[in-house]
Amino acid sequence: MIVLIYIKGLEDERFVRPLQLIANLFFEETEICMNEHPDQELVVKIDLTYEKEQIVSSAVLLAGKQEYRASYGKAVTADDEKERFKQVKNIVSHVFLHVLQDYTKITQKWGILTGMRPTKLLHKQHQAGVLAEESRRKLQEEYMITEEKVQLMERILDRQLTMVPDLYKVKDEVSIYIGIPFCPTKCAYCTFPAYAIQGKQGRVSSFLSGLHYEMEQIGRWLREKGVKITTVYYGGGTPTAITAEEMDELYELMYDVFPDVHNIREITVEAGRPDTITPEKLDVLKKWNIDRISINPQSYTQETLKAIGRHHTVEETIDKYHLAREHGMNNINMDLIIGLPGEGTAEFAHSLAETEKLMPESLTVHTLSFKRASEMTLNKDKYKVADRTEVEKMMNMAEEWTEEHDYVPYYLYRQKNILGNLENVGYSKPGQESIYNIMIMEEVQTIIGIGCGAASKFIDRETGKIEHFANPKDPKTYNERFAEYTEKKINKLDKLFS
After folding, report:
1. Helix axes 81-104, 16-23, angle to 10 degrees
2. The model's pTM
């Protein structure tokens, strides 16, 4: 059902999208109308007034005979028009969120934040020398973030700076993401570049030729410019979906063409699908000194795995975990997803109990997100998921379990359409945090994406401005244009590191 909200008093169309994102935190789907609509269900009147050096926003929500009011003012200091609008938008969002919380009786723990990376706010203040107490006050008052979430952000910042003490100085280095776009099958919640590998070995071989070319050209540029690599991350898809021989050739090439591989801080290979792991592939990983891998159960309930299209068994996940241990993998990450179809607190408690038997070095707890192009989103009626209250209970269970078992939170990110307006949190044993995950979330350095569907983030070392650039998502287009995209990336790198 779409909830129509008529916003009266604001004429600037730029407010529509941010207010809609906030409204969507409360209702499944909303439409913001700047003109009165006959089918509107809520009316919110928002005024902006200038009082001395402050801009004050007031809001009145009208629902039948009920009225809910809020007012908030703050000095707007920016000279730049874009930054000035951002500050005004936050003031308006503040009162809009306030009246919606009063009306629905739902508290949004992340306040007005709808972006992916809350901890970037805290890092920015830390770099500017703002004291912790003042940072906490700003987050709670200006962004309406609850004490609980502010404390989580503070813990994560402390862990990140402990694991990477030079976090604010790695801008002169780069990290590399290598995308392998193949999986045994595609999961129902997935929107990553992932193509079922069965019967497509010819396409795999063509893709790997293009990938090798990209690695050679990027490696040559890095050597010529003397740019160091901080981390390398093989993602996808499932990088272990290709054969052991193909993996061996790929890692050998990495050592041949990338500079100073032995001093790269971390190399990770996602082996997320247990049905792709074999003794031969683990031997290849060990041969090339790669011991950080992901083996992702997502759930330890067999009916759930079947419902989301993961064609492996719970027993296979456990067996492959032990197999990886036997082959010397000593830094294993596992993923669990809160709110998968048909799952509630009982099923999640079972998944945590099974995790306790294995005790991986890190555990990433995702909250299910209905991603726009996923099978699950396109067929929502088919996939029944837990309500906000139960999802929040599951997140609390994860927090308590990780605390009891000496895991610490070290990164988080949020997504649109995430259940309960919650978050995804990476936990680890102290000292086993993934450096790549910190780099990609805090956006402190350029990340070069290589391979099908791989996205690059080019970050200006002086201004911090970010430019996104993505390779084609499907293998056919990638195979036809990998040389063109490689050249474009190198041109962008030349400008950044000139």
Report:
1. 30
2. 0.91
